[in-house]
Amino acid sequence: MDSTDEEGRGTPVGRRVVLGLLGLGALGVAAGPFLQRVESGLAERDPSGLSGLLPGNAGFRYYSVVTSVPERTAADYTLTVGGLVERPAAHRLADLQAMPQRRLVKDVQCVTGWRVPDTPFEGVPLAHLLDAAGVRPGAKAVRFDCFDGAYSESLTLEQARRDDVLVALRLQDKPITHDHGGPVRLYVAPMYFYKSAKWLSGITVTDSVQPGYWEGNGYDVDAWVGRSNGRDDAPTS
Amino acid sequence: MHRRAELVLRFTRAERWVHRTTAALMGVCLATAACLYLGPLAVLVGNRPLVVTVHVWCGLALPVPLLLGLASRALRADFSRLSRFTPADRQWLRALRARAGHRPAGKFNAGQKLYAQWTLGSMLVIIGTGLLMWLTHLAPPTWRTGATFVHDWLAAAIAVVIAGHVRMALRDRESRLGMRTGLVDRTWAEREHPHWRTGRREPVRTGADEAVE
Asked: Do the interacting molecules here have an ipTM over 0.95?
């Protein structure tokens, strides 16, 4: 086990390989945003869908903060509306489906970087539900609770009344599946996607903004795409 | 099965533990990465904040065993062996391309050296890009997008290369024993690593304490 053999000398290939990899890594970080756009562009034109398997692939990613989320169907789903309102309510899925619907087609932007272009969401404008319940004077904000038992979100009343904020029932022109937060999820088009709480179960009108799950972990409460969380993505709405 | 007669020391206890702990940390990193990244697994596991925490801390700990191991003289000696190419290594690579049978090598062959250097380099890059993604205030957002891009692709490459590493190990029982017990058969060493100076005729330990685990 002496180290005096010929291997003590020789070409320092190790150093070259390691430095080369570091250089490639730095180059990749610099060119990454461009390469990412190229990859997404190619993936959009790929009819086989195989490109979805590539690293950095386009498309939705599943994020849940709990171990398992109970499934709710039309039979047992209810959405409660309460807090500072004149007429608290509990809506079944069929009730929501009978209300006026709005369809929006916009990009979805996640704060972690992925973006899904031209995604149709359809559902009841949140403003309609608030008007139906009758917001009492003094109300300033809305809190959203989810039947995963952990997640929550919030908006100011002004944000909640925007016409691009929906209680969404359909995604990509199909009923929202469980993994995408179905049967009912929030859709806040102009904000990063963590504001669009999945598995929506409760809407509570409050007198102040109560920061939601991720805001408790350091993310911005006013999560405008391109103007928050230190990011400069193109606005989505 | 060929009976192991005369054994030579290939890896000291310190080296084996560095290998083991690094492999375990890398395994946890890859498993948690899969749970964060692959849709069906993410659906199955959920618990994103917990999985992220495990991934981040195992990732940060990746280089620790190697850094601690540098206190070992044997590890430092192997480190310098792995970092330099000799004429025998070039011959080994030529023989590989020509699919020739005679592939000369020292204690480590050229393929093992390249693997070790890839491991070190890719570990530094994956930790660097991981830090950029984790400490979001460290750099502007475009850097984070770039770091995410590199991190994703490099992670996939690392998974493929590790699969190759495991496959090579599965094909050679003696080399597996070398990493598990530290000892290899002298005839194997002379066949696979003819230029390795194992120290001729030194007293050979066949002690059960080293060989059995």
From this structure: no
